[in-house]
Amino acid sequence: GRYAFQNQPSITQWNLARLAESLVQIAPGNPEDAVGKFVEILETFSSRYEKYFQIGANAKLGLTTLEKEDSVIYLDLLKIMEESQLDFTETFVILA
């Protein structure tokens, strides 16, 4: 569904865009300037999300560096957890 775990980045960005649309109405100054600023912010969302998602994932796995390959390890673990119907929290408690 729309809010499934793997859809969280895109639905979060969509929700932020809807919020920005609402805020344009009350933003000070020219609405077009506000739209430009919101668009600029939203365009950086994906890269920021990926970075902070990886930081959080690495912390859960006890990894201290930030390497591109690390996200594959975490995503593979999530896939195994889903296929095995493992509890998200309990899995990471056991790994700790």
Annotate the secondary structure layout.
Layout: H1 8-24, H2 31-43, H3 45-61, H4 70-83, H5 88-95
Helix pairs in contact: 1-2
GO molecular function: ATP binding; metal ion binding; nucleotidyltransferase activity
Keywords: ATP-binding, Magnesium, Metal-binding, Nucleotide-binding, Nucleotidyltransferase, Transferase
Organism: marine sediment metagenome
Précis, in short:
Its cofactor is Mg(2+). With 96 residues, the protein is mostly helical. The protein has five helices and no strands.
Question: Your description of this structure?
Answer:
With 96 residues, the chain is an all-alpha fold. It has one domain (5-95). Helix content is 72%, strand content 0%. The chain is built from five helices and no strands. Helix 1 (8-24) packs antiparallel against helix 2. The chain is elongated.
Tally of individual helices = 5
| N-end to C-end Cα span | 31 Å
Number of domains: 1
Strand content: under 5%
Shape: elongated
Following the backbone from N to C, one meets helices and strands in this order, namely: HHHHH
Derived from helix and strand composition plus strand pairing, the structural class reads: mainly alpha
Contiguous runs where pLDDT drops below 50 for at least 5 residues: none
**Whole-number mean pLDDT:** 91
Give the biggest beta sheet.
Answer: none
Radius of gyration: 18 Å
Q: Would you count the extended β strands for me?
A: 0
- Proportion of residues in helical segments: over 70%
Family: Belongs to the SELO family.
Organism: marine sediment metagenome
Pfam family, one: SelO
Keywords: ATP-binding, Magnesium, Metal-binding, Nucleotide-binding, Nucleotidyltransferase, Transferase
